[in-house]
Here is the input.
Amino acid sequence: MSRREAPRGRYLGFVRLLGVGKRYGRGPWVLRDLSLDVSGLVVLTGGNGSGKSTLLRIVAGVTCPTEGRVVDRPASVGYVPERFPSDVRMSVRDYLRHMSAIRGASGEVLERLGFRGSMTAPMATLSKGNTQKVALAQAFAATDLLVLDEPFSGLDTAASVALVEMLAERTAVVADHEGHLPSAQVVSLSGAHVTIEFSRASGLGELSDLDGVRSVEPRGTGARVLVEPAHSDTVLAEALRLGCSVRSVRS
Ligand SMILES: Nc1ncnc2c1ncn2[C@@H]1O[C@H](COP(=O)(O)OP(=O)(O)OP(=O)(O)O)[C@@H](O)[C@H]1O
Here is the structure.
């Protein structure tokens, strides 16, 4: 689909990912071959380390994909990272003034979220929930696309309800493992895996039970085992201890 044909519908923002993959340095692939059209509300789910924050950073333009492309990213993108910088010395008021100067006002969002902290306190001294409200206030000043990493984290119930309402009719990609947005399109990330091929495999049952093993598929006298990257070294060591012979390891 060309840029002109992008399905904006009633939502302002739209962004498209084409065959996106990401690895850090020479590490294992965190994401691979991911294509996605974002219009309206999209929730990312997946276990720890499955690549949700990585994908959000790519959508926000904070980091580049290793392969593939992000196209049609709109000009005005608001981003709340998983960890908001904790060492900002500016007061809440000065910080929001600074962000307003960059892309518009945002004090109203603080009110809707029920911010009770001091506007003159340095950001670094705010509670977790109040910091999150300020982070959301600066992001919501963006008009087109919101990229929110666990935005409900630390929010009280009233603020969570308000945030759900504020997200209606916005285009947003949100990592949320608590199910606050049941009507959103869900994209589930399983994370990249390491494939270990064994020419001879024994103790397949024991291999299946190891942490991080996603699947064990017998192949002749051997097996193909898919393992989460963080566990591949221990699985490999355990398989060798069980007497398996390794043919190849691919990430
Ligand atoms: N800057 C980095 N350098 C190297 N590896 C990284 C970096 N950032 C993330 N990773 C690795 O990428 C993988 C995915 O991490 P990411 O934070 O995207 O996952 P996540 O799904 O958001 O996890 P969680 O639910 O625990 O927050 C992990 O194995 C992580 O260690």
Observations:
- The two ends are 31 Å apart (CA to CA).
- The CA atoms of residues 211 and 231 lie 7 Å apart.
- The helical segments are 52-60, 92-103, 107-112, 128-140, 157-167, 204-209, 232-242.
